[in-house]
Amino acid sequence: MNQIDISRRTFIRSSLAVGGGLMLGFHMPVSAEAAIVMGEPWKNPAEGVEINAWLTIDNAGVVTIRCPHTEMGQGGMTSVATLVAEELDVPWANVRCVLADANRFVTRGQEYKDMSTGGSNLVRNRHPHILQAGASARERLKEAAAKAWGVDRSKVVAKQGVLTSGDKKGTYGEFATAAAAVTLSEEPKAKAYKDWWLLGKDTPRMDVAVKVNGSAIYPIDVRVPGMVYAAVKSSPVPGGKLKSFNFDAIKGRPGILGVVELKQTKAKLQNADMRSAIAVVADSFYRAKTALDLMPIEWDLGPGADNSFEKMDKLARELMDKDGQHAEEVRGDPRPILAKGGKVVVGDYARPYECHVPMSPPAAVASVTAERVDIWSFTQNVAATLLMAADQTGRQPKDVYSHGVYQGGAFGLGNAIDLPRQAVEISKQIGKPVKVIWTREENILQARARPPIWAKFQAVLDDKGLPAAMISRAIGESEVPDYADRGIANMAYKVPHFRYERHIVPSNMPIGPNRAPGNNNNGFTIESFADEMAIAGGWDPLEWRMKMTEGNEPWQRVLAKLKEVSGFTTKLPKGKGMGIAVVESHGSVVGACATVEVSRRGALTIEKILIVSNSGYVINPRAASEQVYGSTAWELSHAMYGGLNLQGGRYQNVNFDTYKLMRFPDMPTVESVFAMSENNWWGGFGETAGPPTPPAVANAIFFATGKRIRTTPMLKHDLSWA
Amino acid sequence: MAVSINVNGKVHDVEVEPETPLLWVLRDTIGLTGTKYGCGIAQCGACTVHVDGQPTKSCNVNAASVVGKKVITIEGLSPDSSHPVQKAWLELTVPQCGYCQSGQIMSAVALLRRSPNPSDREIDAAMADNICRCGTYQQIREGIHAAAKLGNA
Amino acid sequence: MKKALVRIFVALVLAGAGAIAWAMRFPEIAPIAKPDAAKFDKELVKRGEKLAGLGNCHVCHTKPGGKEFAGGLALPTPFGTIHTTNITPDVETGIGSWSEQAFIRAMHEGVDRHGRNLYPAFPFDYYSKVTEADLKAIYAFLMSRPAVSQKPTDNSLAFPFNIRLLLAGWNFLFHEKGEFKPDPSKDAEWNRGAYLVEGLGHCGACHTPRNMFGAAPKSGTNVYAGAVAEGWYVPPLNASTPAPIPWTAKALVNYLIDGWDGHHGIAAGPMTAVATDLYEQSEDDVFAIAAYVMSIKGGPRPQAEQEKITTEALATATKLEWGHPEAPPVPNDPVMQKGAKVFEAQCSTCHKQGGKPAPLGLATVLYAPDASNLILATFKGIQPPRGVLDRSMPPREAQISDDEMTALATFIRARFTKKPAWTGTEALVKKIRSGAH
After folding, report:
1. How far are the Cα atoms of B4, B20, B63, B64, C322 from residue B1, in angstroms, in the given order?
2. By Cβ atoms counted within 10 A, which residue in A443, A601, B129, C268 is the most buried?
3. Residues in C touching B137 (Cβ below 8 Å)
4. Nearest CB to A407; choose among B97, B128, B139
5. Mean pLDDT of chain A, nearest integer
6. Alpha-helix residue ranges (DSSP H) falling in A357-409
7. ipTM of the assembly?
8. Quick one: A684 and A538 in the same domain?
C-alpha cells in the first residue's frame, strides 16, 4: 500500500505551492480533486532535497519553504517565506512556499514548535525560530561547501543562492544534498535589523496568483474520489439536545443516502466538544441540505431557551451599580476620593454579540478508513485538527493526516469549532469520504461568537481637569471572563488612583476568540470614556492622551505621529467631526483618527480612517497595511451594522440579509502610517488596527453632532441634528 | 432529469432536479469550484457568474432557467489569468483570503464591460452586492481603476 | 369604438385650439456656434448638474445602454410611442446650436429652437415654473457635456397625433405659463419644496392622473391622486394614499434619499431613478420636498394617532410574516395553496420572519388597486436605488409561469393584507409578460 500516485499528488500540491515572483505557471484544475497519498505526504521528490524540516532545495536552486501556519488571508505563507529567505539569503524569485505537514509535526517531535495561527502571533512571537530555521540551513550549505573546498566555513560566503570562497563558486542547489547531511556543532545567531535585505521591504504576497483564477483550494472545494455530502444541524439553542427526527419523511427524496445522529461529547480539547446534532447524507450537498431542511426534527432546547440579549443587558445594567465580584486596586484607592465628589465623569457602554462569518462557510472533508484518517478542514491549526480527529475516531495520531488548505477567512472561529469532529464521525459511520458544509445560517447559529461587554467608568477630575481617581467596572460574559479585562486592567493612562472591577452575566451562548478578542470591545469603551474625561476637563483629546501617557515611548510616538499627519481638530462646522483613539493590543500600539460627516437627517458618512501603527519592526509594510485595511473594515462592520440578535436563546439574524456587514459604498478610505520603534521589538498586525477604529468614529460623531454614542451598532442611533 | 447547460463554452448534460441552484450544479456536478457558496440568498456575491454576459448570483438562479444561455465562471474568464482584471488583481495583490474574489472579479469584469472607465460612484454601485470580509474594498477599487487603464476589459 | 370616438374628439378640440394658437406661434431663434464648454463658470456648471439631477433629465434623455443625454428612449404614451431627443451639445443631432434663450424658451414654452411645439411627454408644463437663473445653470451644465452624435428616432404616433399643430392646441389649453410664485403665507422650506415639486421635480407628471388629452391637471381633486407610468401603478401623494402606515416627513426624507423606508418599502420602477437622483441632492432640498408633500397630504397626523397606527400596523404585519409562529395557515383553496407553494420556493428565502427590515404586509405595492407592481417587481426584479444598493431582488420571469404568478399574486394579497382580492390579475400577468404597457 505504499504506492504513490505522483500525478495526482503533484496535482493537489501544485495548486497549493505558491511562488515568490508573480511569474508563475498558471494552471486551471478542472476539479479540485485531492488524492489520499500513502507514505509520508510531505515528501515530494519534485521539491528537491530537504535541508531541514522547514525547507527543501532542488537542483535549480528553487527553495520550497514549508509554512506551519494557516494561510487564512493574513499573508502567513509570505511572512514565513520572507523570514526564512532573509536568513537563507536566496533570490526571492526562487522561493516557493507550501503548507507544512501536521502528521510530521505531531509524530516527529514538533519540529515547527507550534502550528497554531492566531493572536497576531506569527511574526510577533515566532520570528526567532523561523529566522533560525533559515540561518541554520544557510550555515549547513556553507559547511557543505567548506568541506568540499577544504576551507573553513567562516571563509565561505552565502549570498543570493550562491556560495563563494575565493575563486570557488557553487549554487545552493549543487550543495543541497551534502548540506542535508551536515550536523552543526552550534546553531547560528539571527542577523541584526540593520543587515536585513528582504525584510522591511514591500514584498507582494505569494498566494495571489491562485486567488484570481478560482484555482485556490479551500476546504469547501476539496473533492476525494467516492465522496458524499452531508448537511448538519445542531440544536439552534446552544446546549440543547436532539429529541427526535423523522428520516422516513425524507428518505425517498433523490440522492438521499442516510442520516447520522451525532452525540454530544465532553470537551477533551478546548473549544471543540461535539454538540448534539443530526446530519443528512446525500450524493450532493444541495440534496442533503434541502432534505435536512424538510426533515421534521424535535429539539430539547434546554434551559438556554429563556436567554435573550435584553435579559442579559438588564442584569448587566443592574450590576453596573454594584461593587464588582472581582476587584483589583491597580494604583492607590479611588473609592474615598470619588466618595468626596467634585467634578465627576460617568459613562456606561455596551456592545452586543458579534459573529466572525468568514466568507467561506465552515466546511470539512474527512475520509476514515481501516488504515487511516484524512481530513481537510476549516481550521487555524492543522495539528489541533489532527488531534481532534484522532480523539473522535480513537485512532493514533500517527494514523491521522490533517491536510493544509487555504482558509476562506477564519478570524478566530477556526480555533473554536467542532466541525472536524462531525466530519470524521460521519465518515466513520457511513464508511465513505464525506464533505460537511455548514450553511451560513448554521455558521451563525453555532459560532463561538464574540461576547458582549458592558462597562461603567467613574472618574473624578483634579483642578487641572485630569482624572485623579477612576473606577472601571466591566461586565463580561461567563465563559471567558478574561476578555473583559484586556486593555482596561492594564490601561496606559496613569490615573493616580485606579481600581478595576469585574462582574459576570451568565449566558447559554458559547463564545470564542474573534479578531482582537477583548480589545475589540474594550477599546471602544475605554477610548470613548477617555474622550469624555478629556472633554469634561476642558482638554483637547489628543493633548489629553499625550499628557496621560507621558514617558510611555510607544504611545508618545503614535500620538506624535497622529498629531503630525491627521490634522486633528475639534473645531469643525456642525455636522463634521474628527475623533481619535489609541489601543494597545497584540504587542502593538495603534492610533486611529476618524473623519466623519453627519447630515441633518442623521446619515453618517465616514470619510476617512487614518491608522498609525507602532508595532516595532515591520517586516513587510505592504502586507502590514493590507492587514490594517482589513481589520479596520472588520471593526467598522461590527460597530456600524453588527449586533447578533439573541432571543429565545438563539441568534435570530443568521444570514447577511439581517446580519449586516460593511459593503463597498460605505467603506471609507483607510490610510496606513507607521510610527516605528526600532528597538528589537516585534508587534502584531493581523488584528491591531480594529480596536481603535470604532471609538475614533464615536468620538468623531460626538464632535459632529454633540451626541455621545455609547452602544453599537452605531447606525441604530438617531444621529439627526438641527 | 437531465439539464443541458453551457458553461465556459462547453455543454454539460447534468442529472439534477431542475430547481437546483446553478451554484451547486457548477460546484458539485460539473466540478468548477472557483464559484463560491457564501450565503445562498443572493446577499454576498461570492457566487457571481455571468449568464449571457450579465453578472448573476448563481445561488439564486436554478439550473432550468439557464438552459440555452451562456454561463461564464471565473475559470472561463481567461485560460491564463490574462484578463485585465486578473492582471490588475495580481499586480496590486488585491486578495487576502481570496474566497470572495471570484465573485468580485466577475462583478468587476461586468462593470468594465458596460463602463470601460468607471467612476468611483459607478464602482460603488456595481460592487455593492459583493461582500469582502477581509476588507479588501480599497484594493478592489484600485484594481478596477488599474484594469480600466489596461483596457479592453 | 368608444376609444375611436374619444380620439376624434380629442383631435378636434386640439385642432381648434391649435388654430388659435397658430396665430400666436413662436418664431425660430437663430442658431449659434457651439459654445466653448471651457468658458462656462465651473460653479455654475456644478449647480446645473445638481439641478439637472433634480429634474431627472438624464432619465428620459438616455436610452438603456446609451450615452448620457443623447436621447433615444422610447416612451410609450396612450397616443403612440415618443422617442426622447438628444440634448447633448452636438450641433447636428443635439442642441449644440441652441442659444441660452432658445433653451429657456423650450423649458418654459415647450417649443424647440425652430419654434415647433414639443410633445408634452417632455414636462414643460412643470419646467415652466423653474427660474431663469436655474435654467441658465442647467444650460451651462448641458452645454459642457460631451457632444454625442446620435440622430433622434422618429416618433411613431398614430394619426392624428403625429400632427404637430395639435400640440399647439394642447399647449394653449393646458400649459400654465409663468415661473413659480412663492406663497408668502408659507415658510421658506415649504416654498422651496413647492418650487421643486411643482417645477423641476415634475412629480405630478407621474403622480397626477392625466386627462383624455394626456395633460396632468395642476389643480382640482385629481392632483396627485395617483396614476400609471410605464405600466407601473404610481401611488397617490395626497391623502388618498393606500399605505397602511401614514407617511411622515421623516419617512419621506429617508425614502426619497435612501430609496426605501421600513414602513413603506422600496422604490421601484420609474421611482428608482428619482430616488437615485435625490441621493445626490442636498438634504435640505429633500426636507423641503417632504415638507411640501406632507402639506399635499393634509399635514401630519397628531403624534399619538400616528404612533398608535404605526404600532398596530407593525404588529399585524409582523405576525403575518412567513414563518412567524402566529402566522395563519394557508387556506385550503387550490389557488392559495399553489400561490403559497410558489411563495415558499421563490420568495421565502428572503421574505420571511425577520428577514427584511420592511415586513411584506407594510409594502404599499400590496395595497395598490391591481397587481401590476407586484408582477413587474417579481418578473423584472428590483434594481435598488443608489442609497440602498445591497437591497436588490433578482428577476424571476424565467422561473415563474403565468399560472404561478397569478396564484402567487392572489396569495400574497390575501395573506399579507385585509384587502379584497385583486381582479384582472391573470390578464395583467399575460400583458406584462408580453412586454406591453
Report:
1. 10, 11, 11, 10, 31
2. A443
3. none
4. B97
5. 92
6. 382-393
7. 0.97
8. yes
